[in-house]
Write a structure and sequence with these properties.
- The complex is a heterodimer of chains A (743) and B (304).
- By secondary structure, chain A is α/β, with parallel strands linked by helices.
- Chain A contains 27 helices and 16 strands.
- In chain A, the strands form five sheets. A six-stranded mixed sheet of chain A has the order 3-4-5-6-14-13.
- In chain A, helix 12 packs across helix 25.
- The longest helix of chain A has 34 residues.
- The two termini of chain A are 33 Å apart.
- The relative contact order of chain A is 0.11.
- Chain B is globular and about 60 Å long.
- Chain B has 304 residues and is an alpha/beta fold.
- The mean pLDDT of chain B is 92.
- The longest helix of chain B has 13 residues.
- The chains are: A alpha/beta (743), B alpha/beta (304).
- The interface between A and B is medium-sized, with 31 and 26 residues.
């Protein structure tokens, strides 16, 4: 379904909108330099309103950001604001000042211009300290869960049914039932948030209306008036048409993004289906209209969306909208995060279309979710098929049951490299004879300590997060928080499946294997020698020579090597230890392997590794082997390796793969990539982040990023314009590209 | 059974249909001027040295029991000198080389080990109509070893292709070919003398073997390397096409444009493949030659 230049000039309008997105990206590049995370579609506020600040993102990463300089929030003496009442009232304050944004070419109004979290100086409420955990966080260089925000998925159908007014009424109803002081504060916060959002929506409506008066083009004038009336309506009422539903979802999503960076939409093809079918049947919506509207939605926020998937009885749920969502991405070629569900009982034609667009667009979209593995895995936690199949891809590497599950996905990382470092340090300093066996034992001991520190962190977070930063936006569309008067972070929803990810598996597996070969088998060096080499960061003539031996051993991914064995053992030990902290019926912990954007900072924090890695270099990415793991870099070898280290409880250990096809889509390239995807999932793989790309273009773009403003890559779980990434992140992508090109 | 191989390459997309695992055998009866797999030319594992990777640490020389390795530190010279008369081929020196500048090219491998690598990607073969390709070098030089691998793959139901220059005793060649599903058959030049000049051997036996494959209806893909100034004249290509047209079991024809990949490869102790000093073949020229071949044959003609 191509966008054309018929009466509504969709093609021209989308071109104009994507050009303006590029201008907005250039503006961000000029003002805040680099953005190493999701492209939220943020447009910087007008220059006179900007203030550049250093802040911490909703994903816990230090960022440079822009705040509105005319907004003063009410903070405590430490510069923070905590609990639903303070947070809600401050968010209302922000939204009342958040500029409206209307583009006459778009069909949807509003834009994200700022991040609420960047207005606070201290994120965690000092009334709930966790000083006893901090030394453990430091010792194991953990990415702890305490204070992490969002990373679970609301159920948008609640909002689409009730609208903002209905949500206010629902809160009003339960406010009378739950009369505790804590619940009262939560309701106050929730109502304040809605109030601020409604105010912002109405100002968007007013702006559209005033622009309509000035607009000479009759088509755009009509469009502006239509947008004004839709915004006015959805500021209170639930949406009725497909157009209104898109606008409602966009407002909600933008508010959620502004609030704490949430970017999860879920199964948009199912959520919008009733509106699509109704409007199509009435003859007021063509497929081209739908693609245009979806493109307008994605242009304003590249949220995580799943297309296709299983229904509660194992049926394939893909529909016409699954294709139209793909089309919208294809027509815009902007960063986007579409997770295409793949499975034995699912629509292969949709998969084929997705792979074809990977070839045609070279924007790293869509990504592919191995539904059979994640469902089967999730059921191992004790859940039934119906629940497991409803778990939806809605983030970088994660799935969540919309509106019913709180997980802090992708927020908590165990750096296996740091755990190894602690084990090696203990072994080489305790006076006992060192050995590989002892090293493995100590690694397992420290791994357990690191995980336990995180588990304690989760409990602390569960108890106190709501008194710091409650989930006031996602709460609105969950089953439970309003009904119980309890925030989702602290018991408001049904299921608590906290995500614990391991990272640097290849670095550590290769390190164990090389110690076995070089020290224990060849006896070329001793543990004491290695200790000296690591302390010297492999510098000096002896260490530099030794580094060649240690780095030259067969790596994880080659197949059948010691490193492959150790990788599987590390994953097994990690999984067993994480699962050992499950508590019956209350809180569960689910292991996965993923390092996300932490691949770089976690490496910066780490000393040299026995596999020849230098101090400060990035760790291995997610579950991937180290670059250069095989002479042929075979995609199938990588696939087998990553499938062999899956934890198997429903969270993912993604395969991040860059392929420059030496055969075209037409010559069978599509079928080969489809086979690679399906084969990986049949082997137990869970998620594939794929870039079909032009290696030469990436190389050139790395030298002069500004010359390639529209080049889009899937960096890790997220996709972004290459030009806005920092040099470190560009290098991460480039190194992967150079390492693996299709045979 | 054991044999000598250079490498096992997985996810190979250009050695037959679908996704394949290609096993590169050591040893070749030809010595084509443009060889792009020079690491397979020796029939047995050999000591190779890459001066660019050498750290000049001389750890290797100290380990050699016969003092066959000597420093050669003259300016501009190689770091190492190998006295081939003294070298017994124990390869212990390679273990001492930290940077792998000194390495054993090729290895003796057990058919079981190779099979375990081949079996990794069975799922991919099934999905894409792929399989295994025995290449080289010239796999038929190690005919017993090849036969065993062919039979092992056959028993696993894996599609088998042999990539061959065709220079092999006809009896052995046909026995092996009968166990394969597809023969990737190279035709380098139709003129016997030119063939000898370019590859070191006459083409009589090669052409005979191609005809035998045709007689027994064994499927073939003909592969013609296009090397500018050596074999890409229209006369030779037309002659080649006429010959292909006379065969009955050819399924497709591939024109393989010369590329410089072989030029940078180490092909011995401190030796690199000499470049031909010719450019890569342009797409236009390949399309033109495909058109020419297509006027003679009734099967798909492709290039890359």
């Amino acid at each position: 379904m191509k966008l054309t230049n018929g009466a509504k000039r969709y093609r021209d309008r989308i071109d104009a909108l994507t050009a303006r997105k590029l201008e907005a990206t250039a503006d961000k590049r000029k003002t805040i330099k680099y953005i190493d995370s999701d492209d939220s579609g943020m447009i910087l506020p007008p220059e006179r309103l900007r203030k550049v600040v250093e802040a911490i993102s909703g994903s816990g990463m230090p960022i440079t950001d822009v705040t509105l300089n005319d907004v003063e929030l009410e903070t405590r003496s430490n510069g923070g604001f905590y609990g639903p009442k303070e947070v809600g009232s401050n968010f209302r304050l922000l939204m009342r000042r958040h500029p409206a944004h209307v583009d006459a070419d778009s069909a949807l109004t509003g834009a994200i211009m700022t991040n609420f979290l960047s207005y606070r100086k201290e994120s965690w409420n000092p009334d709930y300290p966790y000083d006893e955990l901090k030394p453990l966080h430091e010792k194991y260089k953990l990415v702890p869960p305490i204070g992490a925000a969002q990373h679970f998925c609301q159920d948008l159908s609640i909002g689409l049914e009730l609208g903002w007014k209905g949500l206010e009424e629902k809160i009003g109803f339960y406010q009378k039932l739950n009369i505790s002081a804590e619940s009262a504060e939560l309701y106050e916060g929730l109502l304040a948030v809605i109030d601020g959002i409604e105010d912002w929506i109405l100002r968007n409506a007013e702006l559209a209306k005033s622009m309509a008066h000035e607009e000479p083009d009759p088509l755009l004038k009509g469009n502006l008036l239509s947008m004004a009336s839709i915004s006015e309506k959805v500021s209170k009422e639930p949406p009725e048409t497909f157009h209104e539903a898109c606008q409602w979802i966009l407002y909600y999503q933008m508010a959620a993004r502004i609030y704490n960076g949430s970017g999860s939409l879920g199964r948009l093809d199912l959520l919008l289906a009733p509106f699509y079918h109704r409007d199509s049947a009435m003859g007021i919506l063509t497929d081209e209209d739908a693609v245009f509207l979806l493109a307008c939605l994605l242009l304003r926020d590249a949220s995580y969306i799943q297309i296709g998937g299983y229904g509660p009885n194992g049926e394939d749920t893909s529909n016409r909208l699954s294709y139209l969502i793909l089309e919208a991405v294809h027509e815009t070629k902007i960063p986007s995060n579409i997770g295409l569900a793949v499975g034995k009982g699912l629509n292969r034609d949709l998969l084929k279309q997705g792979v074809l667009y990977q070839f045609q667009d070279k924007t790293g979209n869509p990504r592919f979710i191995g539904m059979d593995s994640v469902i089967e895995g999730f059921m191992r936690n004790g859940y039934d098929y119906q629940l497991a199949s409803s778990r939806t891809n809605s983030g970088c590497h994660w799935l969540s049951i919309p509106g019913r599950e709180y997980s802090l996905n992708d927020c908590t990382k165990v750096n296996f490299g740091a755990v190894f470092e602690a084990a090696f340090e203990e072994m080489t300093s305790d006076g006992l004879a060192p050995s590989l066996e002892r090293l493995w034992g100590l690694f397992c001991k420290h791994l357990e300590s690191a995980i336990f520190a995180l588990v304690r962190g989760f409990h602390h977070h569960f108890q106190f997060m709501r008194f710091s930063m409650p989930e006031l936006i996602i709460d609105l569309l969950c089953h439970g928080p309003i009904e119980k008067g309890l925030d989702a972070s602290g018991g408001g929803v049904e299921f608590y499946n906290f995500c614990i990810d391991g990272a640097a598996i290849a670095v550590v597996a290769d390190s164990f294997a090389t110690i076995k070969k070089v020290i224990e088998e060849d006896k070329r060096y001793t543990f004491a020698d290695l200790s000296d080499f690591l302390k010297a960061n492999w510098e000096g003539p002896d260490a530099a020579k030794a580094r060649h031996f240690f780095a030259g051993c067969p790596k994880f991914g080659i197949g059948g090597s010691d490193a492959d064995y150790f990788a599987a053992e590390i994953s097994k030990a990690f999984t067993e230890k994480v699962k050992s902290f499950d508590e019956l019926g209350h809180i569960k912990f689910i292991p996965g392997l993923f390092s996300w954007a932490n691949t770089i900072p976690m490496g910066k924090d780490l000393g040299a590794s026995p596999n020849g890695r230098l101090a400060g270099q990035p760790i291995s990415h997610g579950a991937n082997p180290n670059p250069g793991f095989r002479q042929d870099g075979a995609a199938t070898a990588m696939s087998s390796a990553i499938a062999s280290v899956q934890s198997g409880y429903g969270n993912t250990a993604p395969m991040q793969i860059e392929i420059e096809p030496s055969i075209s889509a037409e010559e069978g390239g599509v079928e080969i990539i489809m086979a690679l995807i399906e084969d990986h999932f049949e082997k137990g793989g869970t998620l594939i982040n794929l870039n079909v790309l032009d290696a030469e273009k990436i190389r050139k773009a790395n030298e002069s990023p500004e010359l390639y403003p529209d080049l889009v890559v899937r960096v890790t779980g997220f996709s972004a314009y290459f030009s806005i990434l920092s040099p470190d992140f560009r290098k991460l992508v480039v190194d992967r590209v150079l390492d693996r090109q299709m045979a | 059974m054991k044999g000598y191989i250079s490498n096992v390459q997985r996810f190979s997309l250009h050695d037959g249909p679908g996704v394949r695992t290609t096993v590169f055998f050591l040893g070749c009866p030809l010595s084509c001027l443009w060889c792009h797999n020079p690491e397979t030319l020796n029939s047995k594992p050999a000591l190779y040295h890459d001066p660019d990777k050498c750290l000049r640490c001389l750890s290797c020389a100290a380990l050699c029991p016969n003092n066959a390795l000597k420093p050669n530190l003259s300016q501009g010279g190689q770091a190492l000198f190998l006295d081939e008369g003294l070298c017994e081929g124990c390869f212990s020196c390679t273990l001492a080389c930290p940077s792998k500048a000194l390495f054993k090219n090729g290895a003796m491998a057990d058919s079981g080990e190779i099979m375990s690598q081949i079996l990794y990607d069975v799922g991919m073969y099934q999905k894409t109509g792929g399989g295994v390709t025995f290449s080289g070098g010239e796999a038929s030089l190690q005919s017993s070893f090849l036969m065993e691998l062919l039979m092992m793959c056959e028993s696993e139901g894996i599609h088998r292709a042999i990539d061959t220059c065709g220079l092999c005793s006809s009896k052995i060649f046909m026995e092996l070919s009968r166990k394969a599903d597809l023969i990737l058959f190279d035709l380098k030049h139709m003129d016997g003398q030119a063939h000898k000049r370019l590859t070191g051997a006459d083409n009589d036996l090669i052409l005979k073997n191609a005809r035998l494959l045709s007689c027994e209806a064994i499927p073939m893909e003909i592969r013609i390397p296009i090397v500018p100034g050596f074999n890409d004249g229209c006369e030779n290509i037309a002659e080649t096409a006429r010959f292909i047209a006379s065969l009955d079991s050819v399924q497709s024809v591939y024109l393989l444009g010369y590329h410089k990949i072989g030029e940078s490869k180490i092909c011995g102790f401190g030796k690199r493949m000499p470049g031909l000093g010719i450019p890569s073949v342009g797409k236009d020229r390949l399309e033109q030659l495909c058109g020419l071949v297509g006027t003679f044959v009734n099967v798909p003609v492709k290039y890359r």
